[in-house]
Amino acid sequence: MPQLDAINSFHIFQLAPIAMWIEDWSEIGHLFDQWRTQGITDLREFLLEDLEHVRQCVEKIRILDVNQATLTLFEARDLAHLSAHLPEIFRDEMYNLQIDGLVAVWNGELQFASEQVNYSITGKRIDIQLRGQILPDAEHDLSLILVTTEDITAYQNARRQEFKNRSLAEARFIYSPAALWVEDFSEIKLKLDQLRRIGIEDLRTFLDVHPEFIRDSIASIRVLDINQKTLDLFLAPNRHTLMENVDKILGGPEMLNSFREQLMELWEGNLFHQREVVNYALDGSERHVLLQFSIFPSYEHDWSLVQLAMTDITARKKAESYLEYLGKHDVLTKLYNRAFFHEELKRLTRQKIFPVSLIYLDLNALKNVNDEFGHDAGDDVLRRTGEILQQAISPPYSGSRIGGDEFVVLLPRADQQTAEKLVVTLKELFRLDNQFHASLKMSVAIGMATSEPYESLEELLKRADHQMYLDKKNYYSNQRVVSQL
After folding, report:
1. Phi/psi at 154 (nearest 5 deg)?
2. Average pLDDT in the 165-187 region?
3. How far apart are the first and last CA of the chain?
4. 224 conformational bin, left if phi > 0, alpha if psi -120 to 50, beta if neither
5. What does each C-alpha distance from 161 to 118, 298, 386 come to in angstroms?
6. Which three-class secondary structure state does DSSP give residue 274?
7. 266-277 burial by CB neighbour count: b if 16+ within 10 A, else e?
């Protein structure tokens, strides 16, 4: 063939660094004619219906010549060796990828290109960029086509690795056990930069004078993405619902104060920081979270890509609060305990608060109640006492259970008259309570004292205790008289 002889006369074909093939597609041209005669108009659809048609086309390609780069790429000794192993080179997914080139030729195009997968004779997978050109004077019969197969395996491997890494990163984001927000803080950076340009040096003072700057900054944040844990944390059914209710999640004075401190961190150049904040789920319940803020690498110049990681610490905060409660309260009566009472005495002494009044209460005959009705009944009497004291007092006054059946009401800055009125109120509340619990009435001995100048609170406690003892003694005296009658 004169054309082929002409091409072979050019040393460039053999010396080219890219694999080059000279192929004869004339038999494919005949096959196309048959299919057109059969009424085939959409070759792509026809080939996709049955890949055996693609195989038919590939098998009709006749290899006329290849260059040395082709032999090297496919690990062949010579053209004969290569031709003998074509079924091993062109296989598997290659048939799907061959369709674009066949359709281009079917449509009369002189050039075609596609990415394909071939295999070397030893079975090594090779990703290739295939390009074909129908040579001059062969347009009518497809008898001479120049095909190049560029090895792009390294490029495709890099793409596959990039896709894998991206998929892994997305999976880590989506399924992270922490609630993740990806946000754009670029507007906030512009706002802070503008403050510096106009000479603001003390941001804290500026925020005190212009608190609206905090709300404006929050409004300028653009949320780019959130993960599933964020939806779960804030009880949102989907991303759209959450985004429509961001103000409910981030609302409240706690969030404003927290964001104020976050602005201070950014102003001082701390692009990675964390703090505990309070947010709210869509049902209004509190969410205590540990917020970790970080600006992604390469975005330090404009803050256009930042991540907020929120770890739910609500259960921990509740446990801490409960432990703190237990440290200061009596579980049965819900009043303060002995430890709190003594700490409060120390505080009042340090602060030199005067006057201080103190009411000492002791349940009468609690042991008899336990012996006759059981300890559950005794516990009920103690609970009722706690409820009465809680009903009668409010801060800064406090009620504490300091012993099994002993209670103290501490009244800072209360004079004797105020304390006496409270004693009257307490006696009335105990009387009313007994009307509702006629089957299990309770009696209480009460002593009251108000501090005198230069008197210690320990001495005050002793005086109130003595007054209570006298009241209790009087109660038991009366009981003996009644029993004798």
Report:
1. -60, -40
2. 91
3. 144
4. alpha
5. 20, 22, 68
6. strand
7. bbeeebeeeeeb
What lies within 8 Å, CB to CB, of 479 at 6+ separation is: 365
**pLDDT (tens digit per residue) in 307-354:** 999 999 999 988 888 888 889 999 999 999 999 999 999 999 999 999
With vertex at residue 176, the alpha carbon angle to CA 241 and CA 245, rounded to the nearest 5 degrees, is: 15
Does residue 92 surpass a pLDDT of 80?
no
- Which residues partner with 280 through β-bridges? 286
Do the Cβ atoms of 348 and 341 come closer than 8 Å? Answer: no
* Distance (Å, whole) CA 347 – CA 350: 5
Closest to 303 measured CA to CA, from 269, 334, 329: 269
Instruction: Name the H helices within 16-107.
Output: 26-37, 43-49, 52-59, 68-73, 79-84, 86-89, 94-97, 99-106
Structure tokens at 230: 């964020």
DSSP secondary structure of 237-253: SSHHHHHHTHHHHH-SH
Nearest to 147 by CA among 52, 87, 56, 61: 61
Six token digits for residue 307 = 């991540």
Distance of alpha carbon 364 from the chain centroid: 56
Within 8 A by CB and 6+ apart from 468, the residues are 360, 361, 362, 445, 446, 447
C-alpha 151/C-alpha 73 separation (Å) is 8
C-alpha span between 280 and 470 (Å, rounded): 54
Contact (Cβ atoms closer than 8 angstroms) between residue 153 and residue 204: no
Query: How far is residue 104's CA from residue 259's CA, in Å, rounded to a whole number?
Result: 60
Reduced 3-state DSSP string for 336-381? ECHHHHHHHHHHHHHCCCCCEEEEEEEEECHHHHHHHHCHHHHHHH
In 84-243, the DSSP E strands lie at 111-119, 125-134, 145-151, 179-184, 222-226
Angle at 60 between CA 58 and CA 64, to 5 degrees: 100
Is 0.70 topped by the overall pTM?
Answer: no
Token output for 266: 């950014």
Closest of 260, 262, 241, 3 to residue 139, by C-alpha:
3
Task: Quickly state the pLDDT bin for 172 (edges 50, 70, 90).
Answer: confident
* CA pair distance 336, 347, nearest whole angstrom: 15
Q: What six digits make up the tokens of 11? A: 């040393």
* Cβ atoms of residues 195 and 206 within 8 Å: yes
* DSSP percent split of the chain into helix, strand, coil, nearest 5: 50, 20, 25
DSSP 135: P
Say if CB 95 and CB 54 are below 8 A apart: yes
Residue with tokens 């103290």: 408
Structure tokens at 67: 């260059």
The tokens describing 114, both together, are 């596609």
Please state whether beta strands 398-401 and 406-412 pair in parallel, antiparallel, or not at all (unpaired).
antiparallel
